[in-house]
Amino acid sequence: MTTQASALSATAESEQENAVAAAEASIAALAENYIVWVRDDLTVARAAFVKAGEALPDNSEAVAEIFGISHNVKGQGGSFGFQLMTNIGASLCDYIRDGGPASDAKLKVIEAHLTALEFVIDREIKGDGGEALLDKLKGYIDNAA
Q1: Distances 56 to 49, 106, 107 between C-alpha atoms, Å
Q2: Global pTM exceeds 0.85
Q3: Measured between alpha carbons, how far is 82 from 39 in angstroms, rounded to an integer?
Q4: Which of 71, 82, 96, 133 lies deepest, with the highest CB count within 10 Å?
Q5: Are 94 and 80 in contact (CB under 8 A)?
Q6: How confident is the model over 28-42, as pLDDT tens digits?
Q7: Are 67 and 97 in contact (CB under 8 A)?
Q8: 1-20: per-residue pLDDT in tens?
Q9: Measured between alpha carbons, how far is 103 from 123 in angstroms, rounded to an integer?
């Protein structure tokens, strides 16, 4: 490799490292915003949950709103280091995917998921947080079925 080619290669490598560092900084800044966004989303989901309880037996609209929020949580959590949010959001999505109304028993499982999501984000638990919480949620789902 010539001296000129080596210099160009070093420059390209340096530019790539700078681009990666800039991207990582942007993701870190977004991660801080994610906590604010998801708290706002969970507040809306909690309000929809209250509406679902008040609208029994025809609470499909409120349940659909919870589904939409949980779908967003599922899609975003892992991107910002909150894999447990993604896992819980996925579990809630799967549970209410049918889009129908939720009975009292189903609302209890939905509430357990919302409480778990709030717990994780309030404590800013990053990563997958272990399997204990997900296992407990799966137990609620199994018992409600």
Answers
A1: 11, 11, 10
A2: no
A3: 13
A4: 82
A5: no
A6: 777 778 999 999 999
A7: yes
A8: 566 666 656 676 778 888 88
A9: 30
